[in-house]
Specification:
The chain has 223 residues and is mostly helical. It is built from 6 helices and no strands. α1 (29-49) runs parallel beside α3 (91-117) and α5 runs antiparallel to α6 (192-218).
Length: 223
């Protein structure tokens, strides 16, 4: 279920729009972010290698299901974050997007390294969220909080304040769904290292949610 994340590293210098710094990201900023995303992924791989392999979770374990499903869930968040960094009008929106993209790409690296260390394929034969007690939370093939292809297309086409508000709304829903999945592994998982990383993920996403909600309120948007 691993979703590939690609970045566009070709950028044109954007003229000063006189909007007080609320225009496109600084020149070469997206290139730097792309490098940061790759570095985050490599650090995630390195962190995952530290997980002991004395008792490996099985193919149908909650840990394996979480690593596979959360990889796909994170991949969409990374894509949304990169869009925000590139297209956001508001400086805080661009910053939040960049932070989410780099942070969650690093976590993808950790989860994929777990699967390799457990001698498991990156994708399994179980449907999304089959490892969770409420797997029925999947709707139209999408895990909780994930945007539809139509919603992603709408976000890509948006500009200015419309983009900022839409990104914040979509990312809030995405993070709420992600926290729900993290709570699932914290409740059902047994691997100590996975549980420790999951708790850090939850703490980070809850902090993100506070920042996202405050930014949305400041811009006059509603949930």
């Amino acid at each position: 279920m691993t979703a590939a994340v690609t970045t566009d590293t070709e950028h044109e210098e954007t003229p000063d729009t006189g909007d007080g710094g609320r225009g496109a990201a600084p020149r070469f900023g997206a290139v730097a972010l792309a490098v940061a995303v790759v570095v985050g992924l490599l650090l995630g791989y390195a962190g995952g290698l530290l997980t002991p392999a004395l008792t490996r979770p099985g193919d149908n374990s909650a840990e394996a299901g979480f690593a596979r499903d959360m990889t796909s869930h994170h991949a969409q968040a990374v894509a949304m974050g990169l869009l925000a960094f590139k297209q956001g009008q508001d400086p805080e929106v661009r910053q939040i997007g960049g932070d989410i993209a780099t942070g969650q790409q690093g976590e993808i690296g950790t989860m994929q390294t777990w699967l390799r260390s457990w001698k498991l394929d990156p994708t399994g034969d179980q449907p999304p969220m089959a490892w969770m007690s409420d797997g029925a939370a999947v709707k139209n093939g999408l895990m909780p909080g994930m945007a539809t292809p139509e919603e992603m297309a709408k976000l890509k086409a948006a500009t200015g304040r419309e983009f900022d508000v839409l990104f914040l709304q979509m990312m809030i829903r995405h993070h709420v769904g992600g926290v729900h999945m993290i709570d699932g592994i914290l409740d059902q998982g047994h691997d100590g290292d996975v549980l420790a990383v999951a708790q850090v993920m939850k703490n980070t996403q809850q902090k993100d949610l506070a920042n996202l909600t405050a930014a949305l309120k400041r811009l006059g948007g509603t949930l």
